[in-house]
Amino acid sequence: MSKITPVLNLDMELMHAASKAKAPQSLSVRSLLRHLIRKMAWRQTLFHTRAILTPHSTTGLARFSTKSTPYLEKVGIPEFLNGIGKGVEAHVAKIESEIGDIQKLLVTRTLRLKKLGIPVKQRKLILKYTHKYRLGLWRPLARPMKS
Predict the structure, then answer these.
(1) Calpha distance 31→42 (Å, rounded)
(2) Pair 44, 112: CB distance under 8 Å
(3) What are 141's strand-pairing partners?
(4) CB 130 within 8 A of CB 105
(5) 142: closest CA among 91, 77, 81, 69?
(6) Looking at the DSSP assignment, which residues form a beta bridge with residue 71?
(7) 3-state DSSP call for residue 141?
(8) DSSP one-letter string for 80-130
(9) What pTM does this model have?
């Protein structure tokens, strides 16, 4: 019995959508089905995101950590590039002398970095992390001082 109910619901929704159409020939069965499938996909998406966004959700693992990650309060070009790592920190002196401060680095384009002689891989990393930093999705971690 449970296998039949979705088909009946689909038929009822199809008849309901056909009755709402301006003219009986204005929508074909194919376009009505396409409309209904999109509508059901949106319902599933909304239902799924609500389940994820609920704070007391018991499904899945814990979403938040109890440990806070120490971030740098003041971020300059050296801290930013060291936070990226992967060989980008080798260009600290060059970028700091030519660009100046972190705000200018955040709006620097690839052509300017290319003129500074920074290889493609490092340019892509710098641009990727500057974009994430502008959006607030990434910040360089505070590294403990080695003594």
Answers:
(1) 17
(2) no
(3) 71
(4) yes
(5) 69
(6) 141
(7) strand
(8) HHHHH-TTGGGGHHHHHHHT-SHHHHHT--HHHHHHTT--HHHHHHHHHHH
(9) 0.51
Q: SS3 of 28, please?
A: coil
Ramachandran angles phi, psi of 71, nearest 5°: -110, 155
Inter-helix orientation angle 29-53/5-20, to 10°: 120
What 3-state class would DSSP assign to 40?
helix
Pairwise CA distance, residues 104 & 39, whole Å = 45
Copy the structure tokens of residue 9.
């619901």
Q: Which two tokens stand for residue 128?
A: 């990727």
CA distance 60 to 81: 35
Q: How many Å apart are CA 141 and CA 41, to the nearest integer? A: 40
In the three-class reduction of DSSP (H, G, I as helix; E, B as strand; rest coil), residue 14 is classed as helix
Mean pLDDT of the chain: 75
Question: Tokens at residue 39, please?
Answer: 């509508």
pLDDT by residue (tens digit) across 14-64?
566 656 654 445 567 777 777 778 777 767 776 665 545 545 544 445 555
